[in-house]
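Researcher: Structure prediction, please.
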Amino acid sequence: MITGAASGIGWELAKQLHQKGVKLLLTDIDEMSLKAKVSSLSENPSPPMCRALDVRNRAQIHQVVQEFLDMEDSLDYLYNCAGVATRSNLDEDYSQYVIEVNLLGSIHTAEEVIVGMRQRKKGTIVNIASIAGLIPFPKASAYAASKAGLVGYGRSLQITERRHGIRIVTVCPGFIRTPMIGKVTMQADSSMQVIKRRAISVEDAVSRILKEVRGRKHIVVFPIGMRIIWKMYRLFPRLLRFIMHRIWGSD
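Model: Predicted structure follows.
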C-alpha cells in the first residue's frame, strides 16, 4: 500500500514496484490524477488497485484497507508517503492541517495495517519523514514538527512491534526534486533556490529507499551530505544552529 501515490516519491515507488510485479494498493486524495497516471502503466502482471483516500479520515483508511484485504490474502508493506510541505505559515488552521496529514495520517494508516501484520507475524511499514525531523529546519516549523513526530513514532513503534515480526523503517531524505519542493521554493529566498538545484532526483531517492528497505537499518538518512550534517548536529548542535542562524535568521 502506498499513500500519496499520485506524485513525488509515492508515484515513483508505484512505478518501480509495479515493474517488479508487486500487487499494489495506490491511494491519494487526488483520485483523478492518480488514475490518469496509473493508466500509463502496463497491466502486466496486474493493474494496481486505485482508491481516493484522505489520510485525515480514519474511517476511510479502514474501508480502503479492508477492501484490499477482501481481494488479497495479505498487505505486507505500507509506504506512508502522503504529505504536505510549505514554508512558515503562522495560521493556526494551516499548522493543524500539516500535522494532521504528515503525522496523524501516517499514524492512523499504520495502525490500520498493523492489525493484519500482527496476525501474520510479518510486515514492513516505511514512513517517509525528512531530514527536517532530525535537525532544525528554518522557516518551516510546523512541517519540521510533523516530521520529528514521525521519527519519534517510528523509533518507538519499532520496539513495540519487533516481537510481532513487523519492521518499521523511517526514511529521512534531504531535498528531492518533486512537485512538493517546487512549491516550497517558488517563493523562496536565494538560499532555498541553491538547495533546490542540489536536490537529488526522485528516481535515485526511491531506488535508495527500496534498497534500504531490504537492509537492517531503522533510520535511513540520505544523501551523504545530509547524513554528515545530521551527525554534525548530534556532535555539535550549537555550531550547526549558529550556522543556520547566519544563513536563515537575518529576517
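Model: The mean pLDDT is 90.
Researcher: Thanks, that helps.
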